[in-house]
Amino acid sequence: MKKLHLLSVSGGIFALLLFALLVSGCQDTSTGIMPDLSQYSVLLYTDSWNYREGSPDFAAQALEGLNVTDYDVAHNPTELANFYGNSYDLIVFDNSWYGSSVMVDALLGYLENEGRLVMTSWLMAGNVENSTRDPYPSHPIWAYFGYSPASFGDVAPVYKWPAEDALFTFPNSVPDFSAMTDGSRIDTFPGNAESSEEARAGVSSSPTSEAVTIVDCGCGRHILNAFLLCNAIDENNVPNDVDGDGKADAVELWQNEIVAVMQGEITPAELPANLP
Ligand SMILES: [Ca+2]
Questions:
Q1: Cβ neighbours around 276 below 10 Å, total
Q2: Parallel, antiparallel or unpaired: strands 212-216 and 199-202
Q3: Is 142 domain-assigned?
């Protein structure tokens, strides 16, 4: 009887250990706190390829996967103008198309109001195709990320620096973006980072303060992807899943970036109205 009892106890301990191992394998809780995002006011701007072609929109999927189901949405500068003057806890800006100078100025004002923002953008190419367009590459908004646009080009791999950084491990384990498909002839904007600490990824396999394509502000409130996350698809529009975990890699990175900027006490900030 005693032996059976010991076997039963050890079996129970083994089951507990197995359960703990499975849980910890699903989510690494040692690198951050999972915020309850359902309580916050969120604005999504998306004009991504995916949205425009009727494919799954990665940023929207990321929000909904984080229990953000009631949020404002704009798909172009005119729709965004409907929300000027509102305050938001978080803005997710998924941009791969033309913008407006008012729109960029409004986002800058939101950052000046200490707003929280995760952004992927094509606006660094604002004056590339037509010299009469606004000079977005020289807009002061980029300095808020500790980033300055330096070049642009076709789709290129994006490597994590370093791979074990919490930005790439919590709550999802995110692979390098090595299988993206060309969405336009201008897809990637390797730039210069003010400091190596703020440079989180780039187009070279080893870290450098140049050729940076993911940069944060060092303030914990905003992150810029200087490449088009909507290109993380194959030629048949199937989302990239380089790490084979069954989840679109772009959704995984959006979620990690959102969770990274939603740590600590959250205060809503105004998206300014009546800009000059
Ligand atoms: Ca994946």
A1: 4
A2: antiparallel
A3: yes
**Measured in angstroms, how far is the CA atom of residue 244 from the centroid of ligand 1?**
5
Those residues whose beta carbon sits under 5 angstroms from the ion ligand 1 are 241, 243, 245, 247, 249
**165-208 confidence digits (pLDDT tens):** 899 999 999 999 999 998 777 899 999 999 888 999 999 999 98
Tell me the residue range of the domain where 124 lies: 40-270
Give me the DSSP letters along 112-140.
Answer: HTT--EEEE-SGGGTTTS-TTS--GGG-G
Q: How far apart are CA 224 and CA 152, in angstroms?
A: 15
Question: What's CA 27's distance to the chain center, in Å?
Answer: 19
- Give the C-alpha separation, 173 to 248, whole Å: 11
Q: What's the whole-model pTM score?
A: 0.86
| Positions of the chain with pLDDT lower than 70, given as ranges | 1-31, 56, 126-135, 275-276
The CATH number of the domain holding residue 90 is 3.40.50.880
Instruction: Give residue 15 CA to ligand 1 midpoint distance, Å.
Output: 28
Number of domains in the chain: 1
